Please model this.
Amino acid sequence: MSPKARSYFAVAAAVVVLATVTALLFTRPLRASRGARLAATPQLSPVERGEYLVRAVACQDCHTPLIMGPNGPQPDPARMLAGHPENFVDPYTVQLPETPGFWMWAPTNTAFYGVWGKSYAINLTPDENTGIGVWSEDIFVKALRTGQHWGTSRPILPPMPWQWISQMTDEDLKAMYAYLRTIPPVHNRVPEAEPIG
Ligand code: HEC
Model:
């Protein structure tokens, strides 16, 4: 190789290295967050849009039980969106609070006790017997739209934030339903709510 060819080669190699480093730096934040990657995709299928919404609206916060990890409570990866664990042993004797407006919740963040009684985040996985496997899209949308259990019966209890979720479009509610049909079914029979009054 002549000295001139060598210096061309060196410049070309430097450009390639620089371009690679730049590309890596710029794509890093996107790779770091699945939510950001989904949001950045212009054309989402209903299932992808539903995944993005379920993550961003934080359904996991109450519908996925927390377990203790090395850095404190973390969502249990084996029970994603599976609701209040059926084998949960309450470490405290739950006394419904007497102070009006006072409420408390289990360390899993899936069971809630207050003036409304006891409520348990339901199993949102498509398990046929214990999840929403038998729910039609219509029931799902109606429940979230009206705040009535199954869209027709008793009021949905706190702290399920249906008042805010009900403001989503039909398309978005249906997208969340479509996504929830695709997640792994988890067999977990959540206790029945115990409304007061
Ligand atoms: C702050 C906690 C919390 C968050 C956040 C939350 N939920 Fe819930 N959810 C609950 C609780 C508690 C119940 C049980 C209420 C009851 O039994 O009356 C419930 C019940 C439900 C039900 C059953 C409704 C019925 O017909 O009985 C559905 C469906 C549901 N949630 C979907 C969702 C979706 C989808 C999201 C996110 C967009 C979400 N939830 C976010 C706590 C929460």
